[in-house]
């Protein structure tokens, strides 16, 4: 199935934010392939920024890649296929370099469905970006979605705990990353380390980049989510087992949600909610021909089941960590 070509969502967000006199929070370095003039129009003639209540000609699905640009398609390809086929509306994939760009694009009505991190969801929800939860991915239907942030160092490092991060060059992901910035900041502060002034912070831009920068010595230490360290980079051959040592684990973080814009018409929002609650899982996809087998059915973040519904209250822990850290990103 051929989808409309990708365009950088950061450029859409910047253009829309400028028009609405919004602050360009966390703008991306990605260039606007459309030259800016047509940034609001979806490929194939669809209008990505629909008025409230109107059904868009194209549904724009946005995310940031967990490893590289191709991983968005690999992670969310089946999800986008189900949305497209079951709603009858073409889905356009958009990639961004950070969550702030996705949030601004949601706020401006340039994105309709988005995969966010827990922290970026709270930022979007509490910042009136107009989002509603669709669900989060798990490994089994009765599992609560969640993961951990890992504090990592190169193999053989003298650093054995978070206290050893003080004075070091430390890789974070980006200021709106839950496991790559917010929870690590809270962990450092619990050790009386200011994450801005007591370390030399480096914003790597991605969990893979953070982990790889630690492994190659660019950073003395850093943070990334658990399976990026223990599974994904090892399986892709970019790291060998033992290249990194885990010296800290966060408490369980609520799972990364996928959201939709509340500008969509109610009938379409109800349909999307039902799809994610009942159908966006491996057994249903195999039964209905979206995957040939369970092994063929790739779900986001390497999860083996698919989506389950989640409530906003699941993310109250994120809000509590924001209260503790008083991170500027929480305020923004």
TrEMBL record:
Residues 34-54 are annotated as: Disordered. It comes from the Bacteria. InterPro entries: PhnD. Pfam families: Phosphonate-bd. Residues 1-29 form the signal peptide. Keywords: Signal. The keyword DNA damage does not apply. Residues 35-47 have a biased composition (Gly residues). Belongs to the phosphate/phosphite/phosphonate binding protein family. This is Phosphate/phosphite/phosphonate ABC transporter substrate-binding protein. It comes from Georgenia alba. The lineage of its organism: Bacteria, Bacillati, Actinomycetota, Actinomycetes, Micrococcales.
């Amino acid at each position: 199935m051929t989808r409309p070509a990708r365009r950088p969502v950061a450029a859409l967000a910047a253009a829309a934010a400028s028009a609405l006199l919004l602050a360009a929070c966390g703008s991306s370095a990605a260039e606007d392939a459309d030259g800016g003039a047509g940034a609001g129009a979806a490929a194939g003639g669809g209008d990505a920024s629909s008025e409230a209540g109107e059904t868009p000609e194209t549904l724009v699905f946005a995310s940031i890649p967990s490893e590289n640009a191709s991983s968005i398609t690999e992670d969310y390809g089946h999800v986008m296929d189900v949305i497209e086929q079951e709603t009858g509306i073409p889905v356009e994939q958009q990639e961004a370099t950070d969550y702030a760009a996705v949030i601004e694009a949601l706020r401006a009505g340039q994105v309709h469905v988005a995969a966010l991190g827990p922290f970026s969801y709270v930022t979007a929800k509490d910042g009136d970006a107009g989002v509603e939860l669709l669900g989060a991915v798990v490994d089994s239907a009765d599992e609560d979605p969640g993961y951990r942030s890992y504090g990592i160092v190169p193999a053989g490092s003298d650093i054995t705990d978070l206290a050893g991060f003080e004075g070091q060059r430390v890789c974070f992901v980006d200021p709106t990353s839950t496991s790559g910035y917010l929870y690590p900041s809270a962990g450092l502060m619990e050790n009386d380390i200011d994450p801005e002034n007591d370390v030399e912070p480096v914003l790597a831009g991605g969990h893979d980049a953070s982990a790889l920068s630690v492994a190659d010595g660019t950073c003395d230490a850093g943070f990334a989510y658990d399976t990026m360290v223990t599974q994904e980079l090892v399986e892709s051959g970019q790291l060998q087992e033992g290249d990194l040592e885990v010296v800290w684990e966060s408490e369980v973080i609520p799972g990364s949600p996928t959201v939709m814009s509340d500008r969509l018409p109610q009938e379409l929002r109800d349909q999307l909610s039902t799809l994610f609650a009942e159908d966006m899982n491996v057994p249903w996809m195999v039964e209905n021909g979206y995957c040939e087998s369970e092994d063929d059915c790739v779900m986001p973040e390497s999860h083996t089941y698919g989506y389950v519904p989640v409530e906003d209250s699941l993310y109250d822990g994120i809000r509590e960590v924001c209260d503790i850290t008083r991170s500027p990103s929480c305020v923004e």
